Amino acid sequence: MNNSHLITASRFAPLKTMRQLLAGAAAVLAVISSVSAQPRYAITDLGTLPGTTTSTARGLNDRGDVVGSCSGGTSPNEVACVWRNGVVSSLGKLSGGNYSDANAINLSGVVVGDGDTGNWRPQSWVTSPNGLVNIFPNNGGNTHTVGINNSGAICGYYTKSLSGNTASWRGALWMVDPKDPRKYRMTDLPTLPGNDPKFTSAIPFAFNQSGQGAGWAVNDVIGQQASFWNNDTAHSIVQLGAFPGDWSSIAWGMNDLGKVVGESHPAFGCRPVLWDNDAAHTPYELPPLPGDNYGTATAVNSLGQILGWTATSVPNTSDVGPMHLVVWVGGEVFELESLLDPSSGADWSITSANAINNLGQIAGFGVHNGQTRAFLLTPIAQ
After folding, report:
1. I need a surface site. Which of 45, 177, 229, 283 has the fewest CB within 10 A?
2. Quick check: 174 and 149 in contact, CB under 8 A?
3. Is residue 203 part of a domain?
4. What is the dihedral of CA 227, 229, 235, 237, to 10 degrees?
5. Closest Cα to residue 246, out of 264, 228, 220, 263?
């Protein structure tokens, strides 16, 4: 439920089945809960491909399969890989490519990611029995994938501007062309129109099993605002807006129930926010760690567990202290590294937590015994 490429930069079970599976979790999905539920995690070093020295994890599915990349140490020369049942496998690169990175994996094990074809400009690919398939080969700028659901729908964004002009970015969906399964058909996602189309853009950073998306929209009327794409025929877009009194916002993650997380911006500030899946998409501010006053939420699962980070900022300045990776569980915030089981968490320093699945597992990367390593956190029964 991953994600980010632009500012720094999935599953589709039948809806009836998803409702049945999640019906018993309704009480846990309250935005703020008074129940203390401090989790504990065992951490697994996912290792590296032969001949590489570092690894990073960016996405995972509900089977615990993890995707990311391994590198020899000089960036960008990474190669996309997948970890399944303790085994790491290379996914290769696009023809002529210098690098590749995997971003998301669905329940069937189909992976999407980014890479180049020899010119270092990002293109997007999906795995197939015959290797990586470039889903948008005629793009002259760059493309990034966000997610793939269990129906095979791919979500992402692209621009044909080599300068990366923000106003030229567009969100899109890709589906297999029914007339030629070797190709993909692209559908542009709508924007929130302003007065001047030169300043209009909209980008998804998250994609769920219902085919909904979340990210941000920009135009000369609203500035930058968190936004939500419905799963109707038109993929209609809704402005989520900022927390009351704030001036801008960004959505970074969403779950299969349509709840969205991200950040909202008061003057010189950043607060973590959850937008509910009610008709009004009601926003709720998430509490930072004690002593912190700045932060963001980046991913959320269907149990309501949320990843993000918080920090301390100097009021009325842009001076922000070191960030602390956190997880919100039952409405409470916990520093993620403090939740590691001592028997497996020794010698680990977690630097990035990128995805959380509906089992509560978390994928990311950190430093283990002096080396950058992808990891998988698995909840331990209390």
Report:
1. 177
2. no
3. yes
4. -30
5. 264
How many domains in the chain? 1
| Residue 150 is assigned to a structural domain of this protein | yes
Domain assignment present for 10: no
* Rg of the chain taking only CA atoms, in angstroms: 20
Task: At 22, give phi and psi (nearest 5°).
Answer: -100, -5
Does 314 fall in a domain?
Answer: yes
What are the C-alpha distances in Å from 25 to residues 39, 305, 358? 17, 12, 11
Q: Looking at residue 165, which CATH number applies to its domain?
A: 2.130.10.150
Residue 59 lies in domain: 15-379
Which H helix or E strand runs over 206? strand 201-207
Q: Which candidate, 112, 115, 42, places its Cα nearest to that of 82?
A: 112
pLDDT digits (tens, 9 = 90+) for 55-107: 999 999 999 999 999 998 665 689 999 999 999 999 999 999 999 999 999 99
